[in-house]
Each structure stands twice: as structure tokens, then as C-alpha cells.
Amino acid sequence: MIAFDKPSGMLVAPDRWDKSRVNLMGLVHDKMGHQVANIHRLDADTSGVLLCSKTKPALDFLSGQFQSKTVDKVYHAMVVGAPPEEAFLVDMPLRDDERQPGRMRAGKKAGKASVTEFKVLERFGRFTWLECKPLTGRTHQIRVHLAAKGWPILNDPFYGDLSVQLMLSDLKRGYKGRVDEKPLLPRLALHASQLTVKHPVTREPVTIASPLPNEFEVALKYLRKFGGGMARPIRGEARMAKPE
Question: Which residues participate in catalysis according to the annotation?
């Protein structure tokens, strides 16, 4: 097996409408051959660990673990809002959103079972740093579950509010930076940090980790330094995707 540290903004597989867009597996196949196969997927805007197999037996063994839900997956997310509990579980079925193709909806109507565990790691006024453990593997699962609870992931173009930005000028009193100030974290604030699977040969557990991208580290540094009590109200108000 082989793992890649996928950057935010890169597709895992070819786009169904625009085949010219660069995608990770296209690059992998050009470099390593078509026998390398991805075991799972990440959203284009999510960064982090993507696991692939090098052989057919490895593909079958690793895919079986994802299908049987025995893979331990850890994500980290910065959300807009303040969950009241330090740890909580969201058990909310998901289904395709027929009104908006490519998106998911949370609700009780004929959805697929979807469960995610969350733990608060740090609180920064209107922002909260979370550990997320999806126990099922539905499309956009973490994003929809958090939005449905009222704490959308920062910079989520589908389920959040892009008018909400994390700006140093909103954290630091007397900010005297650039007029054209840019957000501290300008991308979807979701990172696939860790995967634990059984190795296809040794059958022993193997944990593969991806360090936080630099923009996360920078944002956390300034939040820890200045974000305990927000200097001014954050720009914009987060809108939640309400479950049916």
C-alpha cells in the first residue's frame, strides 16, 4: 500500500464533467502505473491522508476494511460556533440533495445511516477546533453533520457561509496590518489527519498520519495568542443547514 498527503483543492479522481482538471490519481497513474488504486476518497477541498493499494490482493483486503467500517479515521476541523458539550455524537441519516446535485441532505427521510463522533479540542470565542471521527463513510458526512447542528466548518462553500472569515484584524486589538488583509485560513477548514488500518501482509495495525497544513498551524497560533475573547464581532453570521 501507499499513502498520499493530498492538498486542498485537488480532486482525487477525474471530474465527471471536466476531464481536463488535474486529479491525484491521474498523476499517480502517470508516475506509478494503473495498478495503483485509491481505496477511498476525500472531498476536493479536504486535505490529508489518502490511502492506495499497489496490488489487487491489497486492494481487496483494504477495501474490505472500509466496507466493514473497521478503519479508524481522524479528521480535524475549525467550525464557526460553540458546541455546548465537550464531546458529542451525531447520528443523522444522509441522502442526496435532489434540489442541488452533488450535495447531501440531513434528515430522517430514507437516508443512509451516518454517525460521527466529535470532541472539542480548543475554544476561541466564535470558533471551535474539533476532532472528528466518522464511524460511517458517507459523502460530505462531517460537513453536513456539523452544519445541521448549527456549527458549519469554516469556509464551507456548500454548507456554510463564506461571508464568515477568520481575520487577524478581528482577533488582535489595534491591528495595523495590510489594507488588503487576507484570511488566516482561506480554505475549507477540514483535514484528514490519520488513518489506522490492518496491513494487507502483516495483518498488524498501521497508523498513517498527515501533519496539519501550514495555514492551519498559522491560524491556530494566532487564535491561541489573541482569540480567547474576540476583539470584535466576527464578520458575517453562520447559516445552518437544517435537518428535515
Answer: 43
DSSP per position, the chain: -EEEEEPTT-BSS--SS-TTS-BHHHHHHHHH-TT-EESS---TT-EEEEEEESSHHHHHHHHHHHHTT--EEEEEEEEES--SSSEEEEE--EEE-TTSTT-EEESSSSPBP-EEEEEEEEEETTEEEEEEEESS--TTHHHHHHHHHT-PBTT-TTTS-TT----HHHHSTT----TT---SS-S--EEEEEEEEE-TTT--EEEEE-PPPHHHHHHHHHHHHH-SS-SSPPSS--------
Topology (CATH) of 71-226: Pseudouridine synthase (3.30.2350)
Check whether 243 has a pLDDT greater than 80: no
Mean pLDDT of 65-80: 97
d(CA 222, CA 213): 15
Q: Is the pTM of this model over 0.70?
A: yes
**Cell numbers that stand for 96 in this block:** 442526496
How far is the C-alpha of 81 from the C-alpha of 101, rounded, in Å? Answer: 27
Give the distance from CA 172 to its chain's centroid. Answer: 27
Q: Given the C-alpha cell 483543492, which residue does it identify?
A: 9
What does the domain layout of the chain look like in residue ranges? 71-226
Can you read off the three cell numbers belonging to residue 173? 486589538
